[in-house]
Write a structure and sequence with these properties.
Order of helices and strands: HEHEHEHEH
Number of helices: 5
Number of domains: 2
Helix content: 25-40%
Structural class: alpha+beta
Largest sheet: 2 strands, antiparallel
Distance between the termini: 55 Å
Radius of gyration: 18 Å
Number of strands: 4
Amino acid sequence: MAASRDLFRLIMRRPPFTIPIVGPPDRVAIMNMPGSWEGYQSLLPKETSWTNACPARAIFMTSFYRPTRHASRVRCPVLLVMANHDEVMPSWSVQKELARPPDGQLVTLNCSHFDPYEGPCFENAVVAEQRFLTTHLKSK
């Protein structure tokens, strides 16, 4: 309903009808899976002017956004970093995509979706990424 309302406002050249980008599971938001609210909030600076809102029509775009549909066309080495306790992106979907690129590598981190952006899980992700890039970008 919110997305349709926003599209109508777009057609009528009115300001967008917005919904939160992130919220708890019992609220309407683009990302409202368990852990999303707490994880997203933990990444924001204490003093921020960021507004937790986006045009509701984004629901239509994110519902059909499937970049993995094109994974079989990738012809270069690929690194997938997976959080094994991810509440947002299920681990089975990440593992499924690993089989598509010809030279795919999976690194599994013992954390949740937002943890690789800071702290010890971030450090582990960076080490894995550096190792991958060093291996695949070194001069031959």
